[in-house]
Amino acid sequence: MTPEQVEACLVEFKGDQIEWLKKGNISIPYVSHPACTRRLLEVFGDWSFEIVETKISENYVSVLGKLTAGGSTKMAWGGNIYGKGKGMDLGDALKSAGSYALRKAASLFGIGLHLWENPPRNQADQKRRDADRSKKATDTESIHATAPIGPKRAKDLAKLLKPYGWRSDSLTTYCKAKLEKNSLGEITEEEGKKLFNYAQNIIGMNLSGLSRSTLDFLEKCFDDYRYYPNDVARLLHQETGKSLKDISPKEHRALLGQIQKAKEESRKAEDKERGDTFGT
Asked: Is residue 214 part of a domain?
């Protein structure tokens, strides 16, 4: 077994994956057969289980099961009572014993081990544990989402952005002007995703020297009208002779009006062509 497989086996089960066996005044939690099988499939993919020995007495049956997964084999006994007045015939008792043997053998891989080491007192206790686990997971995700990605992740992200024409100076410009961060390594995971999505729409364009308002303007042009930054730059040059570095927020609004008008005319032309095609 690999360390990753061990860690995956030890993941605790939620309340809806746990069943309870009533014994007198106490309830004993155990991993349901479907949940155990699913965990084996998720962690190992290929695994096998077989009954290698069976013992049958007057009202009790026990079986020795052999579970093989991840290059390792574990064996465990499982048993159950049967007979008149016991609520179970021999066939059902054998199935139940086999299921118990599987779950016990799986616990030797770490699956459901927490129910043996530190079992919940009752179902209410299990619900509290589920709620605590859910809160911890949410808090962890929040921490990861707001923590800087760091130099190594920044280097990986820069490699991903390189085919889209993003040079280091463009990345620095975006981080400083748009995100108020001094370097790529200071951005968060969420900001990195947004940057990657944005970068794919600005193929081969140098953003060096652009202001935050211009970057916002370019994003709006694409998000609202699917107008690529290179097209915006081309239209701006045709109309004013200026580059994106030279325009003011007032000129942003004027240019946005032209883009909106151009898109509207294009839509009308497409509607007319479609109508002509279908004879309407």
From this structure: yes
